[in-house]
C-alpha cells in the first residue's frame, strides 16, 4: 500500500490509510435495487461468481451499508427515496452507477419521469457501462472500487458534503421538492 | 366467431335494447362495443350481472385530431373466458366523466390513474384528483399527445454534454492502432 515514511509521523494520515485498507476489504452493499440492471446481482451474489470472495455482502438497512448501487434508470419518484437513503448512510459511503441509464439516460433519455445523469444529483464514485452489465463486469467494478477505496480515491461522500449546495440546487430543479409525500403513511 | 349461444343471445339483446354504435371482435374471445356516454353505467351493470364480474382495467386513448378522449372499460368473464371492451368517447376540452366505483369499487385507482395521465375528472370519485404516481407534477398530463416529453426532459433533467469531435478522434486513434475493425 502507499504508506510512506513521513506518514508514520503524521498519525491522522497514517490511520486514515490503514482504515482505508480495512474499508476496502469489507464492503456491505445496500439491498436496494432501482432498475433492470439489478437482475445481474443475484448471479453475482450466488455460487458461480460469489461476491463474498471480495468481502462483500448484502445488507438490509442504509445505516449499516457502505455501498449504494444504483442499478439502472432512476425515476423521479425513486430518486427522492434514493436521496433519503444516501443521506441516511454513515460515512464513508460509496455510490456506484450501473448501466447506461445512470450515465446519460440510456433508452429513457427523453422520458418525462426518468432522470438523465446520476452524478448531477448524487456523487458517483464509479460508473459501470453496459445495458445491462454482465456479472463479470460487476465483479470487475467491485474489484476496482475496492482498489480505489484502499488508495483513498473514492471520495464521493466528501464531495457531497463540500458541494452540498450545488447538489441540492440540482435536486430541487428536477424534483421541485425533495420531501417524500406518501399517502399510505400519512 | 365461435361464441356460445348464451353470448350470441346477449349480443343480440345488447344490440336491440341499447344504443350500440359499433360491434366488433378484435380478436378471438374478445368483444368490443362502442356505446353512448350515458349508457356506460347501465351496460356495465348489465354485463356484471351476466358474469363479467372482473374489471381488468380502464384505459384512455387520446384522439387528438377528433378532439376526443376514448375511455375503454375492459371486463373479463371467468366462466367463459370472454373479454368485453366497452368504449365511449368524451370531449377533450375540460374532460369530465362519471365514476363507476359504485359498480366496480376497484375502479377507484384506475380513475385516479387516468386523471393523472390524461386529466379526466371523475365525478363521484372523491380520490380522483389525488396524485398517484407523479409526485409534485407541474405540467400538463404527460400521456396527452400534445405533451412533449423530450422538451420536458431537457428542461427538467439536464443531459450529459459530449464533445462529439473529441470522441470521433478517439475512435480514429483506436482504429489506427488496430483496436477495432474499420467498418465500410
Ligand atoms: S442501462 Fe439498460 S439494463 Fe440498465 S437500467 Fe437502463 S435499460 Fe435497464
From TrEMBL, chain B:
UniProt-listed SUPFAM superfamilies = Nqo5-like
- State the superkingdom: Bacteria
Question: What Pfam families does the database record attribute to this sequence?
Answer: Complex1_30kDa
Q: InterPro entries, per this entry?
A: NADH_quin_OxRdtase_su_C/D-like, NADH_UbQ_OxRdtase_30kDa_su
Record domain NADH:ubiquinone oxidoreductase 30kDa subunit: where: 33-150
Which family does the record assign? Belongs to the complex I 30 kDa subunit family.
Q: Which PANTHER family match?
A: NADH DEHYDROGENASE [UBIQUINONE] IRON-SULFUR PROTEIN 3, MITOCHONDRIAL, NADH DEHYDROGENASE UBIQUINONE IRON-SULFUR PROTEIN 3
Could you tell me what this protein is called? NADH dehydrogenase
Q: Which organism is it from?
A: Petrotoga mexicana DSM 14811
